[in-house]
């Protein structure tokens, strides 16, 4: 990063010290540091939905739920192994679904009579 500040996708500016702090904390990117949710026309529910979606995408709510109570080391290992296996399974299923949904096949329904 060059200069004193960086611009994030949604146009917000952060200082170089905030960027360094965020990267030092091990975050993937300092996206949430400059997020602002505006309430338009007193529609607080819509703003809350937007905020919950942002927090869900950044996995902040999941982190909060995990750290609310102590998680024993064997539970951490089980959770991490489950997440890894689920990611592998999901990737494989996505690949299979894309294979079945591809176009211009000779036999559009393989295995069916």
Explain the overall architecture.
The protein is mainly alpha-helical and 113 residues long. The chain folds into two domains: 18-69, no CATH class; 71-104. 54% of the residues lie in helices and 5% in strands. The protein has helices spanning 16-24, 44-57, 60-68, 73-101, and strands at 5-7, 13-15. The protein has a two-stranded antiparallel ribbon with strand order 1-2. Strand 1 (5-7) and strand 2 (13-15) form a beta hairpin. The longest helix has 29 residues, at 73-101. It is flat. Mean pLDDT is 76; it is low at 1-14. It comes from Trichomalopsis sarcophagae. Keywords: Ribonucleoprotein, Ribosomal protein. InterPro entries: Ribosomal_bS21.
Question: How are the elements arranged and paired?
Answer:
Layout: E1 5-7, E2 13-15, H1 16-24, H2 44-57, H3 60-68, H4 73-101
Antiparallel strand pairs: 1-2
Give a nutshell description of this structure:
The chain has 113 residues and is mainly alpha-helical.
Q: How much helix is in the residues?
A: 40-55%
Q: Structural class of the secondary structure composition? A: mainly alpha
What is the distance, rounded to the nearest whole angstrom, between the alpha carbons of the first and last residues? 60 Å
Main β-sheet description: 2 strands, antiparallel
Assembly state = single chain
Radius of gyration: 21 Å
Overall tally of structural domains: 2
The outline comes out as: flat
Proportion of residues in extended strands? 5-15%
């Amino acid at each position: 990063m060059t200069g004193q500040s960086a611009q994030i996708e949604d146009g917000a500016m952060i200082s170089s010290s905030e960027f360094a702090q965020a990267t030092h904390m091990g975050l993937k990117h300092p996206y949430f540091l400059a997020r602002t949710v505006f309430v338009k026309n007193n529609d607080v529910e819509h703003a809350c939905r937007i905020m919950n979606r942002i927090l869900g995408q950044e996995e902040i709510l999941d982190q909060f739920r995990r750290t609310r109570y102590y998680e024993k080391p064997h539970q951490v290992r089980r959770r991490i192994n489950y997440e890894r296996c689920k990611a592998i399974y999901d990737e494989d299923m996505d690949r299979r679904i894309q294979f079945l949904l591809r176009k211009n096949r000779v036999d559009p329904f393989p295995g069916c009579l």
